[in-house]
């Protein structure tokens, strides 16, 4: 139960940070998809 909650928190943090990550690194949409998939 705790592990599932931590997974949810991790994915939520990444989703919130996506605009900043994309702006700061100039990441493409496909790179953002890879980043998101890495935390899913």
UniProtKB/TrEMBL annotation:
Domain Major facilitator superfamily (MFS) profile: 1-40
Gene Ontology cellular component list: plasma membrane
Membrane topology summary: Multi-pass membrane protein
Molecular function (Gene Ontology), one example: transmembrane transporter activity
Subcellular location: Cell membrane
InterPro entries registered for this protein in UniProt: MFS_dom, MFS_trans_sf
Keywords recorded for this protein, A-Z: Membrane, Transmembrane, Transmembrane helix
Source superkingdom: Bacteria
Name of the molecule in the record: Multidrug efflux MFS transporter
Provenance organism: Streptomyces sp. SID7499
Phylogenetic classification of the source organism: Bacteria, Bacillati, Actinomycetota, Actinomycetes, Kitasatosporales
């Amino acid at each position: 139960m705790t592990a599932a909650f931590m997974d949810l928190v991790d994915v939520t943090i990444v989703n919130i940070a996506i605009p900043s990550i994309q702006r700061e690194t100039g990441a493409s949409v496909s790179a953002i998809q890879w980043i998101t998939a890495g935390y899913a």
